[in-house]
Specification:
The protein has 55 residues and is mostly helical. It has one domain. The protein is rod-shaped and about 55 Å long.
Length: 55
């Protein structure tokens, strides 16, 4: 994530694309990161439940 943020800021400074585009990009990246965290939490919960049931 740090690399994506640094690259995005660099591109804005170079005027590679407008600030608004960079803002939308980072919003999407942040949402995807949250989704990834949710997926990890769900998979860990399913694994724990499976182990608790002895499967």
């Amino acid at each position: 994530m740090k690399f994506l943020r640094e690259e995005q800021l660099s591109n804005i400074e170079k005027s590679t694309y407008p600030y608004e585009t960079g803002s939308f990009y980072m919003d999407i990246v942040n949402c995807l990161e949250k989704m990834g965290d949710f997926i990890i939490n769900i998979s860990q919960s399913v694994t724990e439940l499976s182990r608790a049931k002895g499967n």
